[in-house]
Amino acid sequence: MKLLNYTTTYFAFLLLLIITVWALIFYWQMLDEIYDSMDDGLENQKMLVIQKAIKDPSILQKTNFDDGYYTFRKVTKSDKILSHRDQYRDTTMYMLNEDDFEPVRLLESIFRHEDEYYKVKVITSMVEEDDLIEDLFYSILWLYIGMVVSILLLNNFLLKKVWHPFYDLLRKLKNFNIESDQEIHYAETNIEEFKLLNKNVDRLLKKSRESYVNQKQFIENASHELQTPLAISINKLELLLESEHLNEKDISLLADGIQNLERLSKFNKSLLLLSKIENRQFENIETLNINQVLQEIIDSLEDLADLRKINIEFEQQQQLLFEGNKELIFILYVNLIKNAIIHSSKNNRIYINVAQNEVVIQNEGEHSLNTAVIFQRFYKKSGVKSSTGIGLALAKAIADKYELGLHYQFREGHLFLTKFPVNLKNS
Amino acid sequence: MKILVIEDELQMLENIQQNLEKEKYLVETAQTCEEAQQKIGVYNYDCILLDIGLPDGNGLELLQYLKSQNLMDAVIIVSAKDSLDDKLKGLELGADDYLPKPFYMAELNARIKAVLRRKNFEGNNTIKLANTEIFPEQRRVKIKNKAVELNRKEFDILMYLVANKERLVRKPSLAEHVWGDNIDQADSFEFIYSQIKNLRKKLKTHHSALNIKAVYGIGYKLVVE
Fold first, then answer.
1. CA A183, CA A186: separation in Å to the nearest integer?
2. Total-model pTM
3. Interface residue B19 vs chain A (CB under 8 A)
4. Number of helices (H) and strands (E), helices first, in chain B?
5. How many domains does one find in chain B?
6. B92 interfacial to chain A (CB closer than 8 Å)
7. What is the ipTM of this complex?
8. Which H or E run includes B106?
9. Which residues of chain B lie closer than 8 angstroms to A273, CB-CB?
10. Residue A227 to residue B101, Cβ atoms within 8 A
11. Chosen domain end from B80, B98, B121
């Protein structure tokens, strides 16, 4: 649920509660005030009626409300009568106009006239409480609906505007990529909290990017520093290998040592290259004929493929031209094609096709590779000992650099696809 | 043949020196630009191996100085940065070859021999080993005065082994030289074998005095019988 609607829901519940309580209090207060002024009126009328009765004792005979608002009844003197006080009561009376019993307010009092005690009753028509409650209920319902609608409108117009910097930041964070140098531009805002949020997000991102860059730089520096000692060690062992008083066993031990150092060295070289690709621009851009590049690679890997009796078919439906660094494009396809050769079984077929601005490298296989991890560094299919697990990561890094959209598909075999931008020069 | 090796990393310098001495060169060394400049001023060298990243200045400046003195020394520049920039600048300034670090000693030997050959004979030369003659520029081979057809890879293998004759050439070094950088990371170097087998057969059929010996599965050695 969106923040804005979330608060609205709370508001709606809260408003319902507040308005209900308010309505109850208001209702009681209003009723209280109405009774108060009605009772005042009744008292006044009582006094007027008594005065009238004193002047005209004939009305003292009026014992029902048939044509008036008062009645008299003679009462005998008793203690109860003497201690009697004015009494206000709610009662109902048949109203002709409404054809129904309606509530009335009644004042009952006792007064003395010429040593006789009379009970006088004065009535006045009263608020119809059920009508009042109904009216009040509808008014409040409309008020409530009106308020909720206003809040919704406010949220959607005003609050949306107020929260704009926040949503703007969210959108930008969603598109944020730590690898790109793109800066986030924060929306202007006068709101303290958003300013603070922007400031802290900015600080966080800068720090993350800084440590990311540092880490990458560290890998590059570390692998760079490893190169020379590795090369020196290998060279020294090579010199030792040529010494005359070694027996076959020594030589084989030495050779194993060298072989492993060389693996380390190769791995280090790939890691260094990977860091370099990720860390900076490669210059020396030239127009490359991708078909020629592929042909060259196929030729250079021919012996490797022959050894495993793997047949490489190269179909060219189009000549692809591309501006880029030759070395990098070479490494990209060498890794993809070599990968296909190494992971193919004997007598398999590798199919390379250039068509519709796409280069497809396909080799036979029965099960799909795990697309989530194949391009990750150090991902290795078990069983291939000498692979450094970095070849496809390298290919991916290069393809990403040139936005060639390298991806893997399983369609009756393993497919590695790269897509080139549409270029008028390509035919 | 006198070679000056300019390299700031002492251990590396020793390796190169030992290796080149096995090739019967006279080797002088320098670890700084200043030291190198002094030596260049006093002696003549047939070949100078120059590391570009020296602590007291850029090796390219030294190269510039060399060329300004009109010294005929062959210069091979070495750069750890495998930066194409250094390579282009170096070659522009008149270096004869460029070798990126790290390199195999066998590769260094091959490069030095090639540079020296080009310098001394201006491309018009042959390598004669017993009954076998090699014409590097024409990429031709004659055994007992009879031309022998070798394919590109066979010829490259032969040249590389000849440049390192009587020395062990390990498989990865040979693979990188002949098949290029691409082939590394291959799980084995078995693919070398079929080319070696063909080359051996051709040498044998023509009764060449050259023989390619396998050394305990780790490499090959060219011997002149």
1. 9
2. 0.68
3. yes
4. 8, 14
5. 2
6. no
7. 0.84
8. helix B105-121
9. none
10. yes
11. B121
